[in-house]
Amino acid sequence: MAVAKAACLNHISRESSDIRRLANFYKEIFGFEEIESPDFGEFKVIWLNLPGSFPMHLIERNPLTKLPEGPYSSTAAVADPSNLPRGHHICFTVSNFDSFVQSLKDKGIQTFQRSLPNGKVRQIFFFDPDGDFYPSF
């Protein structure tokens, strides 16, 4: 079996019932920029780009889907902070950790902090408007 050569991240896709709300969140919190999006006709999309990093595609959720808005963890469908280190998430690295954490708090976003046992890695977890969570280092 061949292994893909020179593989790299192309984009991350998120599904949401309110892609405009989610786009505004990512633009405000991380500095994503809205880029030209194709017209898929049957559903709406918003494409975002994080300069120097990666694009994110926000896709309108099928209204007939009966799934909860976000998979909060691998074991629970509720926003339980004890599940934060595991399960579905997107991780961002930021160079201004302390001021970034303060800006989240200033925006009223509940955060959950922890450090790895070696003390070298600090993490801040928080939920986006759809209930998915993000560790930032």
The largest sheet, given as strand count, sense and whether it forms a barrel, is: 4 strands, mixed
Q: Major sheet: order of its strands?
A: 1-4-3-2
CATH architecture of the largest domain: Roll
Characterize the overall form.
globular
Number of strands: 7
Overall average pLDDT? 75
Question: What gyration radius follows from the Cα positions, in whole Å?
Answer: 16 Å
Q: What is the CATH topology descriptor of the largest domain? A: 2,3-Dihydroxybiphenyl 1,2-Dioxygenase, domain 1
Q: What is the helix/strand order? A: EHEEEHEEE
Going by helix content, strand content and strand pairing, the class is: alpha+beta
- Based on the structure, what is the oligomeric state of the protein chains? single chain
- The span between the termini is 35 Å
Structure description:
It comes from Gossypium armourianum. Residues 8-137 form the VOC domain. By secondary structure, the protein is of the alpha+beta class. It has two domains: 10-61, 2,3-Dihydroxybiphenyl 1,2-Dioxygenase, domain 1 (Roll); 74-137, 2,3-Dihydroxybiphenyl 1,2-Dioxygenase, domain 1 (Roll). 16% of the residues lie in helices and 25% in strands. The chain has two helices and seven strands. The chain has helices spanning 19-30, 97-106, and strands at residues 12-16, 33-35, 45-49, 55-60, 111-115, 122-127, 133-136. The strands form two sheets. The chain has a four-stranded mixed sheet with strand order 1-4-3-2, covered by helices on one side. Strands 5-6-7 form a three-stranded antiparallel sheet, covered by helices on one side. The longest helix has 12 residues, at 19-30. The chain is globular and about 50 Å long.
